[in-house]
Amino acid sequence: MSRKRILVIAPHNDDETLGVGGTMAKHAAMGDDVFVATCTSIDEDNPVMEPNKSIIRAETYAAMDILGVDRKNVIFRDLPNVLLDNLPAYRINGEIYSILKEVSPDILYIPFLNDLHRDHRQIVYACQVAARAITPFGKKIREIYMYETLSETHWNIDHVEGGFLPNVYSDITGFLDKKLAAVEAYKSQLKLSPNARSVEALRALAVFRGSIVGMDAAEGFMLVRKFL
């Protein structure tokens, strides 16, 4: 089997691990080249969010080390956290376009279209624009999947907008412990049970997703497109 280039787009540091951590570890174990792009950052003087980007990026590196993702494959961008609604679309689209062109992935993972967080929605829109198969790197993306992010995906008005209904399942039975350890590396983001960002909640979700399809643990995805 040929080595694939995998790209996970994360609006914020830790989204990638919450949604795709087990699958990322599996891709890495299979010898695929795994890339992670976190799109926003927090300036040192940001009065709204903390911690600052030097802390959260150190946590990202620690998490990627656990998942087996090479640090040179971690891409950071500086779009303003929680403020993407204030930016013109062309600026966000341009950042995502440059990431996709740089990595030229075979498989792309993006957040869920209807996540509660507006940053997520803006990033998904930009991914849809950039991944169109009208450019060489866009056509090279053979598979695109949306992932679920506990604390965002299930807080939308799902009976109005449409909820997260996975139709693709990744068996992460052998990688769940790595995923949870990587989540714990995000010390500034981790919460205690019963918070959705707790280790217990993530384990429960993996077990539940797995139980649907006869696996001990799984991550669920929604297929956006796949070229055969």
Give a brief rundown of this model.
The chain is built from 8 helices and 7 strands. By secondary structure, it is α/β, with parallel strands linked by helices. The relative contact order is 0.17.
Primary descriptors:
alpha/beta; 40% helix; seven-stranded mixed β-sheet; globular; 8 helices; Rossmann fold; 228 residues
Question: What's the helix and strand layout?
Answer:
Blueprint: E1 5-10, H1 15-29, E2 33-41, H2 53-67, E3 74-80, H3 89-103, E4 107-111, H4 118-130, H5 136-140, E5 143-147, H6 158-161, E6 168-171, H7 176-185, H8 199-212, E7 218-226
Parallel strand pairs: 1-2, 1-4, 2-3, 4-5
Antiparallel strand pairs: 5-7, 6-7
Helix pairs in contact: 1-7, 2-7, 3-4, 7-8
Description:
The chain is 40% helix and 20% strand. The two termini are 16 Å apart. It has helices at residues 15-29, 53-67, 89-103, 118-130, 136-140, 158-161, 176-185, 199-212; strands at residues 5-10, 33-41, 74-80, 107-111, 143-147, 168-171, 218-226. The protein contains eight helices and seven strands; from the N terminus they run E-H-E-H-E-H-E-H-H-E-H-E-H-H-E. Helix 2 (53-67) runs antiparallel to helix 7 and helix 3 packs across helix 4. The protein has one domain: Rossmann fold (3-Layer(aba) Sandwich). Strands 3-2-1-4-5-7-6 form a seven-stranded mixed β-sheet, sandwiched between helices. By secondary structure, the chain is an alpha/beta fold.
